Structures are given as structure tokens and as C-alpha cells.
Amino acid sequence: MTALLAVSDHLPPGRVAIEELAEEFGLTSIQLRIFRRYHGLGTVGRDPDGSLLDLLRGAVAGLDALRGREHRVRYVLHARSFPTVVPYPHDPVRELCRELGLDRATVFAVGHHACASGLLAVDVAGRLLAADADPDGLALVLAGEKTFTAEAGMVPDTSFFGEGAAACLVAPGGDRDRVLSYAVDVRGEFDSDEPDVALAFQRIYAEALAAAVLAAVERAGLGMDAIGVILPHNVNRVAWHQVCRLLGYPRERVVLDNVATTGHVFCADNLVNYRTAQRRGLLRPGEPYVMAAAGAGRGATFSAMVLQH
């Protein structure tokens, strides 16, 4: 059974208030008030002097479980929200692998589910390791991007992207943080830039994400009352309050600490929130928890994964 051997994150110390981004994105004072007061957004991470390699390197630096196990890493996956994350011909993931001595690993990107691709990467890593049937095999999942284009800076009317990264060492089995189930709902009808399609996406967003969470919990043979915490993607507070209302789940048990301070850290949110929950003592041995995310781009994806700490 797929398990997370270790998780680490790296959030640059630099922060930018959303008001400082108003001119860049053409936002009015009313829009800014909605972002801050209604959506619960305040600042986002920025590292103007750092590269994507610096972000990913910082995340892996905290992955102590990787030390001495580099030779066992068979796959390195970079979970991406956007198809292109650096200008050509830069390849920061392969450069990082050379630094870490992971030259023998198969390296590739996963971005098919947009901002939900982090969960997809964990699932793919587990499937590959299971197919290899090598109990000592490992996979390294990386997540995190730079806001190097306007599109990678803001989700219109919804959230701001923040810079940061996370790393996760995946094993084919383990005693904790075992993956119990994974549910995905891919909605191709939202593959359009038309305004009416965007509005339709917003209308079904909370219901579809709640349904994905319920599907994953049911596949794990559990009920929502068994779930200790939900580790969300940091889109905004109000979206998760709506999902909690539909699930009948206490919103105080959704780890939303980072929404106001880091923004939406692309595919790294679930792992960043794992580290926050870990520091707060919210992950209890043997207790199930949920990671959930949604992605928009070439359609829409709603996904959830149940793990047991």
C-alpha cells in the first residue's frame, strides 16, 4: 500500500500584500476588499531573487529521510499546475537530480490535473512502485512553481498564486501515512475560456469537490466522522466553508492556516498543509485524514485522497 515516507516544504520568507499586486492585475479597490475580507487572502509568497531550482532545492533540503537512500529512488515526479514552468531551455528538476545524485531515476512531470496534479503525482508514483514489485524502491514527488507569468500569478476572482515548494518521498508500503483511497472526477465540459463556462464552473465547484471527498472517504470504507482533518488546496476560505457545509464537516478541522499568508502554492498546498498539521499536532497515529484539491485547465478536475497517519 502506497505510503508517504516523509514530507517537507519550503516557503520563502518574502511576502507581498495583495494590495501591492493590484496594478499588475488591474484590480479595483472593491475587488481587493473582496479578496481580503471575503476570501480571506492577505499576503502571498514571493522570492524575486530566487529561481524554481532554489524553491525545489529548499524543499528537498528538509527531506532528511532521503539521505542515504538516494540509490533507491527510481522515479522523480514534478507535479505542475501549468504545462510550462520555466523558460526554455532551463530544466531545474533534472539539475536538482544531478545535485542529489539521482541520475539513475526516471524523471518526468505530471500536470494533467492542473492544481490537483500533486495528488495525481502521488498516485502515479505509488502505481509505478507497485508495478516494479521492489519493496525497497522509492519515488520523489516535487511540487512548487514560480509566478513567472501573469497567468501564474492569479486565479481570476478566486485566489493569488504564491511561490513555494514541497517534497514528498513515496514508498510502496509503510506503517504510517498510508494511502487508503483516491478519487478523481475529471470534467471535460469545462475546457473552454468562454465566460458562461467559467460561471458554470464556479456554480458546481463546491458540490463537485465535496462529492470527490465523499467518494474517496467511501472507497476507504469510512464515514466523514472518522476523518481527523482535511488538508486542502489553498484557493480561499469561503470556497472551503461551502464545501464543509455540504459535507457537514466542521470547518475548524480544515487546515486553512496558510491561505492568508502564503496564497495558493500551486500543487504544493496539500503537502504544505501536511507540514502545518504536523507541527500543530493535528495528525494522530492511526487516524485517517483527507487531502483534497481542484484544478482548472483543459477542463476541470476534482480529487481527494484518504491517508492514514
Automatic annotation (TrEMBL):
* UniProt keyword ATP-binding, yes or no: no
Q: Name one Pfam family in it.
A: ACP_syn_III_C
**Presence of the UniProt keyword Transferase in the record:** yes
The entry lists its GO molecular-function terms as: acyltransferase activity, transferring groups other than amino-acyl groups
**UniProt keyword list:** Acyltransferase, Transferase
Q: Fetch the InterPro entries from UniProt.
A: ACP_syn_III_C, Thiolase-like
Q: Which GO terms describe its biological process?
A: secondary metabolite biosynthetic process
Residue ranges of every copy of the Beta-ketoacyl-[acyl-carrier-protein] synthase III C-terminal domain listed in the record: 218-307
Q: What is this protein called?
A: 3-oxoacyl-[acyl-carrier-protein] synthase III C-terminal domain-containing protein
Organism from which the protein derives: Kitasatospora sp. CMC57
